[in-house]
Amino acid sequence: MSEFTDWMQSNWYALGNLLFQYAFLAAGVWFAREILRTMRASQEQFGALVKLSITGATTERHSPIAVAERTLAGVSPYWLTPTEMPPVGPLELPENDPGRWAVARHSLVVWLQTPMSSGNAAPWRRAIRWLQTPAGS
């Protein structure tokens, strides 16, 4: 017999362990690639939805901004570009609604007024008492 065959017969367990470790490593790398591929697809879908919701239109304008959008789209099809939108004014809260602090105070008072426990014993305590009572009483 050759030297390699003798070595394999005497160290079959170590060789099998090494092969198993390589198979486990390959499965881990494959699984990680699949997870990353799925995450990338999810990010692209989310980017497409965000781009659609920001632009709000499906037709492309013929202006310098559209040319810039086409060049940025070469990098990634979901690259977000600034759109021409009117400036947003300051947020005006309706005056008939209660304020943030009033709602928080009311929630705190309601939470403090709720009882900590019901008057009954907990179910696990009832089960323990039932187990401790003598049979037939």
- Topology pattern, helix = H, strand = E: HHHHH
- In the predicted model, the low-confidence regions spanning at least 5 consecutive residues are none
The percentage of residues in β strands lies in under 5%
Main beta sheet: strand number and arrangement?
A: none
Number of strands: 0
> What is the mean pLDDT?
77
Quickly give the structural class: mainly alpha
Percentage of residues assigned to helices: 55-70%
DSSP helical segment count:
5
Task: Please tell me how large the radius of gyration is.
Answer: 34 Å
Overall 3D shape: flat
Q: How would you describe what is shown here?
A:
The structure is a single chain. With 137 residues, this protein is an all-alpha fold. It is 64% helix and 0% strand. The chain has 5 helices and no strands. It has helices at residues 3-10, 12-55, 64-75, 100-113, 123-132. It is flat. The model has no long low-confidence stretch (mean pLDDT 77).
Topology (elements, then pairings):
Blueprint: H1 3-10, H2 12-55, H3 64-75, H4 100-113, H5 123-132
Question: Key features?
Answer:
single chain, 137 residues, mainly alpha, 5 helices
Short description, anyone?
With 137 residues, this protein is mainly α. The protein has 5 helices and no strands.
